[in-house]
Amino acid sequence: MERTYIMLKPDALKRGVAGEIISRIERKGYKIADAKMMQLGEAILKEHYAHIADKPFFPELVDYMTSGPVLAMIVEGPDVVQGMRILMGATKWEEAAPGTIRGDYANCTTENLIHGSDSVENAEIEIKRFFGK
Ligand code: IDP
Ligand code: MG
């Protein structure tokens, strides 16, 4: 069974919509195989977001991602990597379609509630990074 790394970002927990988002994931037929609350630091974020660490918005992204705990999850299901990217919606708030998590909840690009791995290969790397397995 395919698996992916999903992370509910600090705004999802502060706004109290983590349960609603998890419901959407479960309603789609995916299984929460593991979950834990984590307080992230700059080092793991530099690793996780290495592909954008040189962007001007990166310091703001680190401030946001360290502003409170995240809920790290391993989610399983058929083609779950692609399926979760579709459920999440586009990165940019103005491109995230209504009906998607970001389209329904996010009104800016930085605070966009949820992370999901963008490939099967990266899913395994990220699960190892955050769960060590
Ligand atoms: P993704 O989360 O949809 O995979 P990435 O390009 O991997 O998007 O970017 C990681 C995170 O960095 C985004 O989810 C968002 O929080 C933030 N981010 C990406 N692009 C921008 C931007 O142009 N402005 C502000 N924040 C951004
Ligand atoms: Mg990404």
What does this protein structure show overall?
The protein has 133 residues and is α+β, with helices and mostly antiparallel strands. It has a single domain, classed as Alpha-Beta Plaits (2-Layer Sandwich), CATH 3.30.70. Helix content is 42%, strand content 18%. The protein is built from seven helices and four strands; from the N terminus they run E-H-H-E-H-H-E-H-H-E-H. It has helices spanning 10-14, 18-27, 42-48, 58-65, 80-88, 101-105, 120-131, and strands at 3-8, 31-38, 70-76, 114-116. The chain has a four-stranded antiparallel β-sheet. It is globular, with a radius of gyration of 14 Å. The relative contact order is 0.26. The structure holds inosine-5'-diphosphate and magnesium ion. Inosine-5'-diphosphate binds next to loops.
| Percent strand | 15-25%
List segments where confidence is low: pLDDT < 50 over at least 5 consecutive residues.
Answer: none
Look at the structure and give the mean pLDDT.
98
Gross CATH architecture: 2-Layer Sandwich
What's the order of the H and E elements?
EHHEHHEHHEH
User: In percent, how helical is the residue content?
Assistant: 40-55%
Strand order of the largest sheet: 2-3-1-4
Structural class by helix and strand composition = alpha+beta
Please, how many helices?
A: 7
The total domain count is 1
Largest sheet: 4 strands, antiparallel
Describe the oligomeric state of these chains in a short phrase.
single chain
The end-to-end distance, rounded to whole angstroms, is 15 Å
CATH topology: Alpha-Beta Plaits
Shape: globular
Identify the CATH class: Alpha Beta
